[in-house]
Amino acid sequence: MAHSLADNEDSLETRLPPEPAPRTGARYAIEARNLRKVYKASGNQPAKEALKGIDLAIPRGSIFALLGPNGAGKSTFINILAGLVTKTSGSASIWGFDTDVNPRQARASIGVVPQELNIDPFFTPAEVMEMQAGLYGVPKRERRTMEILKAMGLDDKADAYARTLSGGMRRRLLVAKAMVHNPPVLILDEPTAGVDIELRRQLWEYVKGLHARGTTIVLTTHYLEEAEALCDTIAIIDKGQVVACEPKETLLGRISDKRLIVRPATPATQLPAALAGMKAEVRPGGTISVQYNPAETNVMTILGRLSAEGMEIIDISTEESDLEDVFMQLTSH
Ligand SMILES: Nc1ncnc2c1ncn2[C@@H]1O[C@H](COP(=O)(O)OP(=O)(O)OP(=O)(O)O)[C@@H](O)[C@H]1O
User: Looking at the record, which segments are called Disordered (predicted)?
Assistant: First the structure.
């Protein structure tokens, strides 16, 4: 992706970020060091330490997921990067630009897609794009309104009132709007919250398209399935701290437990005594799921115990652990 530049610090033109001079950390799209945020006490609300020293390095070119339970601090982190919340201490840089030292370039290096669908219903997508381009000081000759709308599948809606757009189209318009100044990093805050499965998958395809064209993508999500399907690297934040940040496969490999699913001839209504002390449960339909670590427990031992208790088994299968297991283990929720 090309980044030409207005370099005048005094100019309002913060549009296209220059390639920063190579230096430590510049290979990261985003780098946070010991980032802290304490929201001050107000009224009867005590002060809240929302970020307790976040260290995070998001590689350039990745599709990166920021996962965490409600209140973990994900929005606070994103809002600090977007320049909407002031950090208490620590440092953050975007595309190699420190947010304190080069705030304009840092801000020009990211586009943020907010959670809310806040689009004026009486503007058309083309007008929304042109206004945003004006805000970022992108000169007319460099504007790519139709190109971006096309990439988001909205070119045929360029001149329709926003109020006539479907929810999915509005979300795509917000992504298009965030791309107006050609930022190398795009942050999506819960892009598919409350969106049905079909639309979610459609949005994933658009996001993958932007990534394939060179944009680094960072998204927050509550959907483990979304992180698993879309992202190559995943960080889990809990109570203002990073509890894991690894390539997806490494993270999934952390849990070596598997599950053995046993289907008895007579559907089970309660756990057999033979499984006492094991992590087991009866599933709807009367199958029994037993969690085990293959390095410690032999499947035949489990089956042998059930047979010895008189159970007739008609089928067995195994399941690998998924992101949900890792998430539950790391956040102990
Ligand atoms: N403006 C604020 N003033 C005081 N406390 C705040 C403020 N914004 C957030 N908090 C608190 O900081 C903590 C982190 O909130 P944040 O919104 O960053 O979490 P989150 O991970 O984005 O949660 P969610 O997934 O629910 O959006 C929470 O305890 C929240 O109540």
Answer: 1-25
C-beta 104 within 6 A of ligand 1? no
pLDDT tens-digit profile of 116-143? 777 888 899 999 999 999 998 899 998 9
C-beta 75 within 6 A of ligand 1: yes
Alpha carbon distance 53, 17 (integer Å): 27
Domain-wise residue ranges, the chain:
5-252, 258-331
74 CB within 6 A, ligand 1: yes
Pick the CATH number of 5-252 from 3.30.200.100, 3.50.50.60, 3.40.50.300, 3.40.50.2300: 3.40.50.300
CA distances from 79 to 83, 84, 187, 294 (A): 6, 5, 10, 43
The phi and psi torsions of 38 (rounded to 5 degrees) equal -115, 115
Question: Distance from the CA of 312 to the center of ligand 1, in angstroms?
Answer: 52
Which pLDDT band, with edges at 50, 70 and 90, does 169 fall under? confident
- Look at ligand 1, atom 17, and give the residue with the nearest C-alpha: 75
Beta strands in the chain (DSSP E): 28-39, 48-59, 63-67, 89-94, 97-98, 110-113, 185-189, 216-221, 233-238, 241-247, 258-264, 279-282, 288-292, 313-320
- Cβ atoms within 10 Å of 106's Cβ, excluding its own: 25
